[in-house]
């Protein structure tokens, strides 16, 4: 297997508030390969310039992967079957960016692989622009021009700022919902609506999801025991820790550590 990876990380606050990174992966597999992608808390727009790629989740049959995909928040694993040449270019986004870019509530994208050209016609144009050059720098430049064009008409700046602060609040994983609402001066009903619309899930679910994501990161630290991981992630009951992690991954933390790759949240195996 030949594998090359390119990555662009925004170096200014304006872009980095919405874009985590722009990446490109070029692989060539002689044999079919299975890739299990655990929930990672990101939204992504992915351009597929590959040979035939199939995908499925726990509730679906295998389907062809579209050439332009919008994928929102996943609460269960997403699976790819790949063979031959694979070229993927992705825009990894903070989840609330979907609402800003497409003016559609984020929960509409949850656990779905959506053909992006059906949501936004300009993505079809961007797909062809990206496919017309092999230069990663040029591809990034065209993506950023599209991005700035899309957000130029953004409204509700004050609400976006509040969502942004809440999204990056590291204290909420240890807080109850009513305390979070008091901290941000919202009623529980209003905060629930805001959370679903901009983050893809209600406030309670978001807090649990952040604890899971923290667990996933900590499991890649080899110096921590599983007991230490659970405690540092905010779980004081090991059975609760194991049960919550398995609800997102279908794996116990111990099972995940045995099969994890260098890329957090990705598990690879030959078919």
Would you identify the CATH H-level superfamily of the largest domain?
Jelly Rolls
- Oligomeric state of the chains in view: single chain
Helix % is: 40-55%
What is the CATH architecture annotation of the largest domain? Answer: Sandwich
Contiguous helical run count: 12
Number of beta-strand segments: 9
Strand content: 15-25%
CATH topology of the largest domain: Jelly Rolls
Counted up, domains total 2
Average pLDDT confidence is: 89
**Weakly predicted, low-confidence segments:** none
Order of helices and strands: EHEEEEEEHEHHHHHHHHHHE
Could you tell me how far the N terminus lies from the C terminus, measured between alpha carbons in angstroms? 14 Å
Computed structural class: alpha+beta
Radius of gyration: 19 Å
What is the molecular shape? globular
In the CATH scheme, the class of the largest domain would be Mainly Beta
Largest sheet: 9 strands, antiparallel
Task: Describe what this molecule looks like in 3D.
By secondary structure, this protein is α+β, with helices and mostly antiparallel strands. Helix content is 42%, strand content 25%. The chain folds into two domains: 2-154, Jelly Rolls (Sandwich); 157-268, Orthogonal Bundle (Arc Repressor Mutant, subunit A). Strands 1, 2, 3, 4, 5, 6, 7, 8 and 9 form a nine-stranded antiparallel sheet that branches. A hairpin with a 5-residue loop joins β4 and β5. α4 runs antiparallel to α5. The longest helix has 16 residues, at 136-151.
């Amino acid at each position: 297997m030949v594998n090359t990876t390119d990555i662009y990380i925004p170096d200014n606050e304006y872009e980095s508030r919405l874009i985590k990174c722009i990446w490109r992966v070029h692989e060539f597999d002689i044999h079919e390969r299975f890739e299990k992608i655990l929930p990672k808390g990101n939204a992504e727009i992915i351009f597929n310039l590959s040979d035939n790629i199939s995908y499925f989740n726990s509730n679906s049959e295998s389907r062809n992967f579209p050439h332009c995909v919008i994928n929102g928040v996943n609460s269960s694993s997403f699976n790819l079957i790949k063979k031959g040449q694979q070229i993927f270019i992705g825009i990894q986004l903070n989840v609330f960016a979907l609402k800003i870019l497409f003016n559609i509530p984020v929960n509409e994208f949850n656990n779905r692989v959506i053909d992006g050209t059906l949501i936004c016609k300009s993505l079809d144009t961007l797909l062809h622009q990206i496919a017309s050059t092999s230069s990663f720098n040029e591809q990034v430049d065209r993506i950023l021009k599209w991005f700035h064009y899309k957000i130029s008409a953004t409204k509700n700046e004050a609400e976006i700022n509040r969502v942004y602060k809440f999204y990056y609040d590291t204290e909420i994983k240890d807080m109850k919902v009513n305390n979070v609402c008091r901290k941000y001066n919202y009623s529980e009903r209003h905060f629930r609506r805001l959370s679903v619309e901009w983050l893809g899930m209600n406030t309670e679910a978001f807090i649990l999801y952040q604890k899971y994501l923290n667990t996933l990161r900590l499991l890649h630290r080899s110096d921590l025991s599983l007991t230490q991981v659970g405690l540092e992630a905010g779980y004081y009951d090991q059975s609760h820790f194991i049960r919550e992690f398995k609800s997102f991954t279908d794996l116990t933390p111990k099972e995940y550590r045995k099969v994890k790759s260098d890329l957090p949240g990705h598990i690879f195996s030959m078919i």
